[in-house]
Amino acid sequence: MSILRTVVLGFSLSLSINAVAASEQNFKEIQALIVTEPEQGLAQAKQYWQGKAVSQENLKPGLLLVSAYMKNKQYEPAADLLERFMSIENLDPDSSGLLLARKLNQLRLSKSKLGTNHLFDQAREIIPVLIPLSALKNQQLALFELNEELGYKHYFAAEFNLAEPYFLEALTYIDKSKKQTLSNLLNSIGVVYAQQAQLDLAAQYMLDSIKMLEDNGLTVRSDRYQNLGSLYFGLKDFDNSIVYSQKGLDIEPEMTSRRASLFSNMAAAQVEKGDYDPAIENLKRSIDINLKLQHSTAKARNNLGIIYNQRGEYAKALEQLNLSADELDDSVNSEMLGISLKSRADVYAAMKNYDQALALYEQAHQAFTEKDLKLKRVELYPKMLEVLEIKQDYQRSYEILKEFKTLNDEITNVESTQKVNEVMAAFEVEKNKQALMDSELARAQQQKSIDLLNHKNELEGRITTLMTIMVSALLLLLLFILRSWRFRGKVNHMLLDKNNRIENQHAELSTLNTQLKKQTEIDALTGLKNRRYITQLIAEESAKEQKAQKQWCLINIDIDDFKKINDSYGHQRGDEVLVQFARSLKQVKGKNDVVARWGGEEFLWLAEMKGSHNGSIQCESFQSILANQSWFRDHDDKITCSMGFSSFPLIDLNFEDWEAALRLADYALYQAKNAGKNRWMGFELVDPKIAYDDIKDVENLVNGNRLRVLNK
C-alpha cells in the first residue's frame, strides 16, 4: 500500500511540474502575441486571467492583462485593474514598485495628468528601498520601469537635464535581451543629449539605437529617422536633415501626428536652404493632418509664419504666429513657448517695431534659460543683439554677447565637432564594411561551387574513360559527353561572369569610399576645405613623433552684414557672394597656407609665417583685394569683412595650442566687429611662457604686456 501511495504522489508531483511549465510557456506565447497581434493577444490574456482573484500571487497574469489593455489603447479597464492590485495591503516592495511604474505608464500613454505628482513622489521614495535588492529579477524590472517613467516625466516637460540621470539609471537595470525596449531607451537618451547640445553623445546613442534594430532584424520606425534629421539640422547639415526626414515619411502611415511632424521638420531644413515654396507646401500638409486629427498645429503654423516673415509678408506671418501662440497659452512646454515668442519678435524686428520685438526676445530668453535649452539660446542671440544695438542698449548688449560667446564656444568646440563627425563616419564605414563582407561571402560561395564542379568534372572524366572500353555503349557515351561538355561550358561561363561582376563591385566600393572621404573634407558650395578637414589636419599633425617647427598665424574671417545681403538680393546671390569671396581668399593665400569655410559666412585662414612677420600683412592684402572687386551687376555695393588673428606659435600643433589660438582669433574678430566692422585686429605673443588657462583673461594678458595688440 505504501508503494502504491509513493507512486501516486510521484505521479501527482510530475503532473504539477508539467502544468507549471505549460503555464509559463503559455504566458510567453501570449506576451509575444500582444506585441504582434494586439487584439488576439488581449483575447488570450483575458482567457488566461479568467477565474483568478486579485492577489499578490496573481500579479504576473494580472499585469499581462494590463499590458494587453494598454497595447489596445483600452486605458480605463487597465487603470481599474491596476487600482485593484494597488489596494492590496502589505504588498512587497518590488510588487509595489512594479505596479506604481505601470500606473505611471498608463497615465502617460492615456495623456492623463490627474493626481500624478504624488505618484512620482512615491516613485522617488521607493527606488532607494529597491536598490539593495537589485540583484533579483523582479526588483531590476521595477527599478528599470520606475526610472524610465521618471525620466519621461521630465522629458515631456522639456527638462532634459533632469531626465538624463533617470534614463541612464534605467539603462543599468534594463533586460538587455529585450532589444526593442533597449533601442527605445537609447533613442530617448540620444534626444536628451541633443537637446542639451551634447551632439557627439546624441549621435552615438541615436545610431546605436538604429543599429540595435537592424542587427536583430527589427523594424526601424520613422521616429528614429526623424531624430537623426533633427540632429543634422542642429549641425546645420540641411541636406542630410531633409534626407532623413524623407526616410521617415517613406515608412510612416498616412494621417498620423508623426507624419505631420516629419513634414514640419523637412520644411524647417528647406527654409534654411532658401527653398520656400516646397517648405510652404509641406507645412500646409502638416497643418491639414493635425486639423483632421484634432491635434495641435502650433509648431507647423510657427514655421509657416517664419517663412512669410522671410518673404516680407508680415501680415500673413503674424496671422499664423498668433494662431500658433493661441494654442500655446496653457502650454507647459517652455521650448515651444520660447520658439513662438522668438518668431513673433523676429517679425516685429523686421517691421522696425523694436520695442515690441525686444520685449518678446527677453521673454523667449527667459523661457530658454529656465530649461537650459542651449541650442535655442544660440539661435536667439544674433537677432536679439541686432535689436539691442539699434536701441543703443549697450549694457544689455554686452551681457548677451558674453553669454553668446561662452555658449557658442561650448557647442562648437573642435573636439566635440570632431567626435560627431567621427561617430557619423564610423557608422557609414561600418555599413560599407558589412557590404564588403557580404560581397566576400558571395564570392567564397561561388568559388566553392566552382571547386565542387571541377571535382565533379574530374569524376566524370574517369567514368568516361572506363565507359569507352565498353564498345556496346560507345555511341551513348559520346552523346552523354557532348551534352556534359556543353553544360559545363555554360556553367563555367556563368560563374566567370559572376566573379567578374563581384570584382567590379569591389572596385566600385573602393572608389566610392575614396570619393566619400574627399566629399567629407570639401565644402560643396565654395570648394574650400571644411571644418572637418582642419580638425583632422590638427589631429594628424599632433600624432606625428617629429613635428615640423613652423610659425603659424590663425586668421578668423567673417563677412560683414551677410544677412542683409541675403535679405536684399536673395539667397542665390548670397551663395554667389560666398563663392566669389572664397576665390578671393584662394588668390591671396600663400603656397603652404590652408583656407577653409568654417561655417555660414565665416572662413578660416591658417597661414605659414616666416621671420618676424605677423598676420597684419595678410589681412591688409585680403581687404584690399575685396575693396577693388565688383560684387553686384546693378549696384555699386561693396562686400567687406572683419578679421581677427593670432600669431600664437603653433609649434607643437597640439589641440591645446589650437584651442588657444582659435580662442584668441575669435576674441579679436569680435573686437573688430564691435569697433565698426571692415577692419582687422590681432594678437602677437610677447611672453612665450603663457599657459593655456591664461588665455581665458585676454585683457589681463594685454595689460600685463604679455600679449601685443595689433589693429588696423
From TrEMBL:
Positions annotated as TPR repeat: 222-255, 260-293
Alphabetical UniProt keywords: Membrane, Signal, TPR repeat, Transmembrane, Transmembrane helix
UniProt keyword annotation of Transmembrane present: yes
Cofactor: Mg(2+)
InterPro entries per UniProt: Diguanylate_Cyclase, GGDEF_dom, Nucleotide_cyclase, Rev_trsase/Diguanyl_cyclase, TPR-like_helical_dom_sf, TPR_rpt
Keyword Metal-binding applies: no
Chain segments annotated as transmembrane: 463-482
Leader sequence residues: 1-21
Pfam family of the protein (one): TPR_12
UniProt EC number: 2.7.7.65
Catalytic activity reported: 2 GTP = 3',3'-c-di-GMP + 2 diphosphate
GGDEF domain boundaries: 550-685
Gene3D superfamilies attached to this UniProt entry: 3.30.70.270, Tetratricopeptide repeat domain (1.25.40.10)
A molecular-function term among this protein's GO annotations: diguanylate cyclase activity
Enzyme class: transferase
Alphabetical list of PROSITE patterns matching this protein: GGDEF, TPR
NCBIfam families for the chain: GGDEF
Name this polypeptide is given: diguanylate cyclase
